[in-house]
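Weekly puzzle thread! Below is a chain. First person to post its structure in token form gets bragging rights.
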Amino acid sequence: MSAMQFPRREATAFSTLVRRLAAALAALVLVCVGPAFGEIDLAAAPDWARVLLLVGGLLLVYLVWLALLPCREALWTVTWVFAIAASGGVLTLAVVLFSPRDRALPLGLGSDRVVAIAWCGVCATLLCAASVMAGRLASTRR
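Winning reply:
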């Protein structure tokens, strides 16, 4: 009696490309979350580090899902999730940029205002570019 043979799904060029995109976007998320890795003790960490780790973890969960299910619909979902994360970065950038210098910033961002402005701008730009790349790849596959 022979063992039951399951059909092997060969990796198509599209699924390979989607998995490579998921790996590249995971590296991008780790770069954007990088400053929060310096806060080892989460109980004593500032609120911005906790929020950054939460959003980064959520993005990584969606990327793992994309790597496991490399289809057009999953790509569109990742596109929208990254667009929402980018808009959150732009919102944080606007709050830090336009708040008066004598007022405390939310989430404990007030210690290094210039660094927060630069980092929010860079991460929002990178997340927006990632969203565009995922959307472009999703729109080419029919």
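Puzzle host: Confirmed. Bonus trivia for everyone else. The chain has one domain: 13-38+47-140.
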